[in-house]
Automatic annotation (TrEMBL):
Sample GO molecular function, one term: phosphatase activity
Full protein name: Serine/threonine protein phosphatase
GO BP term, example: RNA decapping
Source taxon at top rank: Bacteria
Length: 228
């Protein structure tokens, strides 16, 4: 049986991603890698992480969308002042823009044709990412699933943003592997281990970009690899 390896919330931390794949001994011919969203924002190498993610997908990885990818698409397509301020000042979009050598203060006014082509390629790529991946055994999703709505009928926006309603309300048979909410929110401050909830939810966001760690959950063994 193939190992499944799940990683979430890379947030521009290219070096940690590379080191973690090595630590887990990832072999695309033997293993199924599942990336659970949030490749960009807050950390240093968003553009390079997206390029790496595309490469990993070509090698067979499943690549899901996170709420931060959704913010990049919205910022790029809408160019709306209030949203721009929120994304660049609160959600770490400024770091993503710097990785494209774009000034975070100008709403793409100074973007060159060359930069625009690269950003557009990444935006198109993000729009092709599904919001969840379901197998006979597991559900993988960035934020979580809505407790009373069938997965296939849930708005993708909910799947990438949901927190408490899912954490407290899920009671399905299938374990849900999710990111989005750093696991110190479950364990207590400063503890970034994978969180195994009593209600079949498995949180893997180790808050790498906040000084925590980048986790990799191996299934079905539930072995864990991480890079601090
Ligand atoms: Mn995140």
């Amino acid at each position: 049986m193939k190992r499944m390896l799940a990683i979430s919330d890379i947030h521009g931390e290219l070096a940690k991603l590379t080191a973690l794949l090595q630590e887990a001994n990832y072999d695309p011919n033997e293993d199924q890698l599942i990336l659970v969203g949030d490749y960009i924002d807050r950390g240093p190498n968003a553009r390079e992480v997206l390029d790496k993610v595309m490469e990993l997908q070509q090698g067979g990885a499943i690549v899901l969308r996170g709420n931060h990818e959704e913010m990049l698409v919205r910022a790029w397509e809408n160019r709306e002042e209030a949203f721009w301020q929120k994304w660049t000042r609160i959600n770490g979009g400024d770091q993503t823009l710097r990785s494209y050598q774009v000034d975070p203060n100008t709403i793409f006014a100074d973007v060159t044709e060359e930069q625009a082509a690269i950003i557009q390629k990444h935006v198109d790529y993000i729009k092709s990412m599904p919001a969840y991946y379901e197998t006979d055994q597991y559900i993988f999703v960035h934020g979580g699933v809505h407790p009373t709505t069938p997965l296939a009928e849930t708005d993708p926006y909910v799947l990438v943003w949901i927190r408490d309603e899912f954490h407290n309300g899920y009671n399905g048979e299938k374990p849900v592997i999710f990111g989005h909410t750093p696991t110190e929110r479950f364990h207590g401050e400063g503890v970034f281990e994978v969180y195994f909830g009593a209600n079949n939810i498995i949180g893997i966001d180790g808050g790498a970009v906040y000084g925590g760690r980048l986790n990799c959950l191996e299934l079905p063994s539930k072995s864990i690899y991480f890079i601090e």
